[in-house]
Design brief:
This protein has three helices and seven strands; from the N terminus they run H-E-E-E-E-E-E-E-H-H. Helices cover 28% and strands 29% of the residues. It has a single domain (12-145), classed as Peptide Deformylase (Alpha-Beta Complex), CATH 3.90.45. It holds the Pfam family Pep_deformylase.
Length: 174
């Protein structure tokens, strides 16, 4: 396993739709393992392949609280098949938008269909933090960031901050 570099906004790859994975093979399993290591090191609770520059519909998630009780989820080609009318709010952050957090409203419960790391079709019903995390990561696969759920004013403010940081980095000033 190896730790991968995380893509940060305003990188345009984060706004692109990821490609469907044709089959779960050794290279996809290696990607899942590398993504999990990267996610834990960050630290984070979810990571989409696009966030490490791979434009495939692959996600790792682990919302467990304790390191010795980890419960990683590996999702290939995940799709939300239903969502509740009931909404919930969570303060979300994103490894691709470091040190920025904002409250986002999403469906409280979701049903997700995906392939596991062995290529088997699975379905999962989730609520609470896991439901929020699933929606956040699946959004990434469709080129949607959590800040896209905020007001235009807040979204523009965040983008300007990161665009400025990117310019300074390019000039060797950051």
């Amino acid at each position: 396993m190896s730790k991968l570099d995380i893509v940060i906004i305003p990188d345009q790859r984060l706004k692109q739709k990821s490609e469907v994975v044709a089959s779960v093979d050794g290279s996809i399993r290696r990607l899942l393992d590398d993504m999990l290591e990267t996610m834990y090191a960050a630290p984070g609770i979810g990571l989409a392949a696009v966030q490490v520059g791979v434009m495939q519909r692959v996600v790792t998630i682990d919302v467990s609280k304790e390191e010795d009780k980890r419960e990683p989820l590996f999702l290939v080609n995940p799709e939300i098949v239903w969502s509740s009318e009931e909404l919930s709010t969570y303060e979300e952050g994103c490894l691709s938008i470091p040190d920025y957090y904002e409250v986002v409203e999403r469906p409280a419960k979701v049903g997700v269909r995906y392939l596991d790391r062995h290529g088997e079709t699975r379905e999962l019903e989730a609520e609470g933090l896991l439901a929020t995390c699933l929606q956040h990561e699946i959004d990434h696969l469709d080129g949607v960031l959590f800040i896209d759920h905020l007001s235009k004013l807040k979204r523009d403010r965040v983008m300007k901050k990161f665009q400025k940081q990117a310019r300074l980095k390019e000039q060797g000033l950051a």
